Amino acid sequence: MTTPVEAVEPHSLLDWAVVARARVGNGGEFVLGNFANDWVIRVGERILMSNRVHNSEEVMAERAFERFGDPRTVLVGGLGLGYTLRTVLDLASEDAQITVAELVPELVGWNRQYLGHLNDFPLDDRRCNLVVGDVFETLKASPGAFDIILLDVDNGPQALAEAKNQRLYGDAGVKACRAALRPGGILAVWSCGPSARYVRKLESHGLHVEVLRVASRVGGRVQHVIFLAS
């Protein structure tokens, strides 16, 4: 997820402590930075995630739950800073099963070591099953397994930072998502912006699609997009 310019913290990047680094994807580097109570993950000077900007991720989970009701099984694709997972855990019943798939093992480690306090340590919840790996593979291996699938991977179906993520938003990915849903299930997908092409792709696989525009942070001007498919 790429955080918009308005969310960049006012402090100079020189003021931020570099807490950890991780090599990812095609040679890029994730940097975990901290300044007082603020945390970011960035690539160079581009902020990918911030603990100040997470409204749209939370709304994605809330809207999916509103449309399904009381899901037994939920898949969260992309751990991030844990805000989507925390919202799911707060909304889900005590006997729900929550699977979270995260490709970058260092990000999982950072959540456990440095970031867990931001969301009351969601990975420690007994309902949470962590899969360190590509969510695409989890989808393919899970036919008819989930009531709700939540995807927050890369920038969404447009402006991908990693080319291989395209398969998640192409025919193969949409087919895998549809097959992994139980009857009446909901697919919710986070995106940094609109994509008419992705809507058509979802519809071509027999899914009914809603497109929601949601503020990136409460009171903010920048909007993200949530695709809800059923």
Task: Summarize this structure briefly.
This protein has about 230 residues and is an alpha/beta fold.
What does this structure look like?
It is a single chain. The strands form two sheets. Strands 7-6-5-8-9-11-10 form a seven-stranded mixed beta sheet. It folds into two domains: 46 residues, no CATH class; 175 residues, Vaccinia Virus protein VP39 (Rossmann fold, 3-Layer(aba) Sandwich), CATH 3.40.50.150. It has seven helices and eleven strands. The protein is an alpha/beta fold and 230 residues long. β1 and β2 form a beta hairpin. Helix content is 27%, strand content 32%.
Number of strands: 11
What would you report as the Rg, rounded to the nearest angstrom?
Answer: 17 Å
Q: What is the fold named in CATH at topology level of the largest domain?
A: Rossmann fold
Low-confidence stretches: 2-10
The outline comes out as: globular
Which whole number gives the mean pLDDT? 91
Return the CATH class of the largest domain: Alpha Beta
Strand order of the largest sheet: 7-6-5-8-9-11-10
Strand fraction equals 25-35%
Distance between the termini: 23 Å
Structural class: alpha/beta
Query: Which architecture of the largest domain would the CATH scheme give at its second level?
Result: 3-Layer(aba) Sandwich
The tally of structural domains comes to 2
Number of helices: 7
Output the CATH homologous superfamily of the largest domain.
Vaccinia Virus protein VP39
- State the major sheet: 7 strands, mixed
List key phrases describing it.
32% strand; 7 helices; seven-stranded mixed beta sheet; 230 residues; disordered N terminus; alpha/beta; Rossmann fold; 2 domains; four-stranded antiparallel beta sheet
